[in-house]
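Thread amino acids onto this structure.
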């Protein structure tokens, strides 16, 4: 991506939020006397120097300040407060003798925490004004593999902004380490080829603000933020907002014909959901530039067929509550059963009208951690074959003889599956022929438990010989009729009898 750096022009506007584990006030060390050659008329505020707007690795860093008078006070009172709250009982206080600057802390700070510090001079029993209070962070620095994705806070998704240079803010969830800094970008297009502003922050601040206007009125803008260490950036999420400085912009309302399918984010791809106590949130993105919908409709089922699966056997969640508005996530109001596979999709809403559904995604519940290894690792897709009458067959192999009802989904189409007594460990699934020379997704579901047994891909190549198929003589009537290279000869002595032979 194209990048423009804005370092000196950025005005820092907020602090990183880190939770402190301190519970009791820190005892104040006994002051160390100094030279004491200042008079009360020379009692002024010191000039704070370092650390300032930087990340320090030591939990007992060296603190540097200067006294602007041509003398030395008796002592200094140094205070360090988490998140700049000098009224907190967790504030560290140390007394420093005159002439003992720079000063290395005798008490330890909390790791991965934002601090502000200030210092005041003392002459006799009198304490002067405090210095300005610069900020710094304590390490350790996150290594590149431990960088988390920042959570975008403001402007919120879908907001209408009335400022041509709004503040950008986010949160960082890792409290064991901090990134060296962040990189952000704002653009007027989804591909970020038309950047409006971008920058790198001096330290791990979680907000940026500039007095330079960078947005136009009646516009749609996308933005993202990534944590970075040693030039390596974390993953990032995208968000969008509109501008309307005068209240006269009219392009924000959707027409139902403009609604696009959302993009699913979580849970997808057979991910395992474990957070029963704090139900997870279904998450998706809606980044179509036409408009922002009124809300969303989400369906969650234990079967793959959303149209026919009864609600009593699946779960349907409706986000038409206007309180949700266009937020691209929904809490899991329904606690889903454990050790099961579920399917879900979501569609955007404009009033009572619903747009096209997203693609389908799957996930598995395992709240107890005792559901065992997913059986998807035990079932393998061993072959595909092109049959007569514009049909095709995919074959799965089981470690044990399959016993139950199964359904395959090939590129979203249902394939009916049956076993064959001649090859008891295999399952043959037949459906309509798909376009050749494409790679399509394949899933196999146990219809009794809802478990996803296989989730992968296969290439449609009809010219390949189906060398893994069982020989005709081993097939029963159903499997034989499914094969274009086999013929079934009926046995007239009893119904259903007969044998299968090569064509």
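Threaded sequence (503 positions):
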């Amino acid at each position: 991506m194209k990048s423009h750096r804005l370092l000196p022009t950025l005005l820092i506007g907020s602090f990183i939020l880190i939770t402190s584990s301190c519970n009791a006030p820190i005892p104040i060390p006994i002051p160390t006397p100094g030279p004491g050659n200042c008079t009360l008329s020379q009692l002024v505020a010191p000039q704070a120097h370092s650390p300032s707007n930087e990340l320090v690795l030591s939990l007992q860093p060296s603190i540097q300040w200067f006294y602007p008078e041509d003398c030395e006070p008796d002592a200094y009172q140094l205070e360090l407060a988490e998140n700049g709250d000098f009224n907190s009982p967790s504030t560290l206080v140390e007394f420093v003798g005159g002439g003992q600057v720079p000063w290395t802390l005798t008490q330890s700070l909390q790791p991965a925490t934002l601090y502000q510090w200030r210092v005041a001079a003392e002459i006799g029993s009198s304490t002067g004004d405090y210095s300005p209070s610069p900020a710094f962070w304590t390490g350790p620095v996150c290594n590149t593999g431990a960088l988390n994705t920042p959570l975008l806070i403001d402007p919120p998704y879908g907001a209408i902004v009335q400022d041509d240079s709004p503040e950008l803010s986010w949160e960082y969830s890792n409290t064991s380490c901090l990134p060296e800094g962040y990189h952000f970008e704002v653009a007027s297009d989804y591909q970020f080829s038309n950047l409006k502003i971008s920058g790198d922050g001096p330290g791990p601040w979680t907000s940026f603000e500039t007095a330079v206007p960078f947005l136009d009125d009646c516009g749609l803008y996308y933005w993202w933020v990534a944590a970075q260490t040693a030039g390596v950036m974390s993953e990032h999420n995208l968000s969008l907002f509109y501008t309307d400085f005068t209240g006269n912009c009219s392009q924000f309302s959707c027409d139902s014909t403009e609604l696009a399918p959302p993009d699913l984010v979580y849970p997808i791809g057979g991910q395992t959901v474990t957070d029963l106590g704090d139900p997870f949130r279904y998450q998706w993105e809606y980044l179509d530039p036409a408009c922002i919908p009124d809300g969303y409709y989400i369906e969650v089922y234990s079967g793959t067929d959303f149209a026919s699966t009864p609600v009593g056997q699946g779960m349907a969640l409706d986000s038409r509550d206007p309180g949700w508005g266009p937020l691209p996530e929904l809490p899991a109001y329904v606690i889903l059963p454990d050790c099961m596979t579920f399917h879900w999709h979501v569609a955007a809403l404009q009033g009572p009208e619903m747009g096209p559904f997203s693609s389908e995604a799957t996930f598995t519940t395992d709240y107890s951690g005792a559901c065992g290894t997913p059986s998807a690792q035990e079932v393998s897709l061993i072959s595909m074959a092109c049959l007569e009458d514009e049909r095709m067959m995919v074959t799965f192999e089981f470690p044990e003889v399959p016993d139950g009802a199964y359904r395959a989904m090939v590129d979203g189409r249902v394939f009916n599956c049956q076993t064959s007594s001649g090859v008891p460990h295999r399952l043959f699934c037949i459906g309509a022929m798909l376009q050749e020379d494409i790679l399509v997704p394949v899933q196999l579901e146990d219809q009794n438990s809802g478990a996803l047994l296989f989730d992968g891909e296969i290439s449609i190549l009809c010219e390949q010989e189906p060398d893994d198929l069982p020989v005709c003589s081993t097939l029963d009537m159903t499997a034989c009729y499914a094969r274009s290279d086999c013929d079934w000869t009926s046995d007239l002595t009893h119904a259903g009898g007969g044998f299968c032979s090569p064509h």
